[in-house]
Design a protein that fits this description.
seven-stranded mixed sheet; 221 residues; alpha/beta; 29% helix
Length: 221
């Protein structure tokens, strides 16, 4: 890309299609990097053009974050909303640049996030709904501080979400994820929600379900 909005990204796999390929952008979790979700790619439809991006804030000695979290804050975990909003906008700009640079279809952009990557995936889709079609939201939640105050005036008619969470999640309480159901329903956003008896991770059954969900929504198949 001529201008990088995010410091590092990897093309995990180019599409089997030469033009108008559906684009999938992967967003890793807190303390990880762009290699974290590589294992998913080999099992997903070959029509997908898959890019994994690295979050912009380094966490020495290893990993990166989309925004800082203070785990010892007086009232529980504290998140840096300013950094999170900046990352949201970086991802939105990255979508535009990926569309301009690679042979992908601007009308078939999907995001797949895990944990903090899911928080950002929700934020991008709910702030810039014209840039995203599908969202796979794994082990995360909707942070309403990261979406516009006038969000109810936006057009969410083309969005479709797959949301899942571990019922034993010790990092992000499942109750936080459950709140997304009522929130998305009030906006008439199409979504599928599922829980699995695991902690902060993706169970095999969870992956097979999200794979089937995403495959059904990929054009040219």
């Amino acid at each position: 890309m001529a201008k990088n909005t995010l410091s590092l990204y990897h093309i995990i796999r180019e599409s089997s299609l030469k033009t108008n390929a559906p684009l999938l952008i992967m967003l890793h979790g807190y303390g990880s990097d762009e290699t974290d979700l590589y294992a998913f790619a080999s099992e997903l439809p070959e029509a997908l053009f898959i890019i994994s991006v690295r979050a912009p804030f380094p966490m020495p000695p290893y990993g990166n974050a989309w925004y800082a979290i203070n785990f010892e804050a007086e009232k529980g975990k504290w998140s840096d909303t300013k950094q999170a909003a900046a990352s949201r906008d970086l991802i939105a700009d990255f979508i535009d640049e990926a569309i301009a640079t690679y042979p992908v279809d601007k009308d078939h952009v999907s995001l797949l996030g895990f944990s903090q990557g899911t928080v950002l995936g929700y934020a991008v889709a709910l702030t810039y709904p014209h840039k995203v079609k599908n969202l796979v939201a794994l082990s995360g939640y909707i942070n309403t501080d990261l979406i516009p105050k006038d969000f109810k005036t936006l057009d969410y008619s083309k969005l479709d979400f797959y949301c899942s969470h571990g019922s034993l999640d010790q990092v992000i309480p499942v109750e936080w994820a459950r709140q997304s159901k009522a929130f998305l329903a009030q906006l008439h956003i199409k979504f599928q929600y599922a829980e699995f008896p695991v902690g902060h991770g993706v169970a095999p059954q969870n992956f097979y379900e999200l794979k089937a969900w995403l495959t059904q929504r990929i054009p040219h198949l």
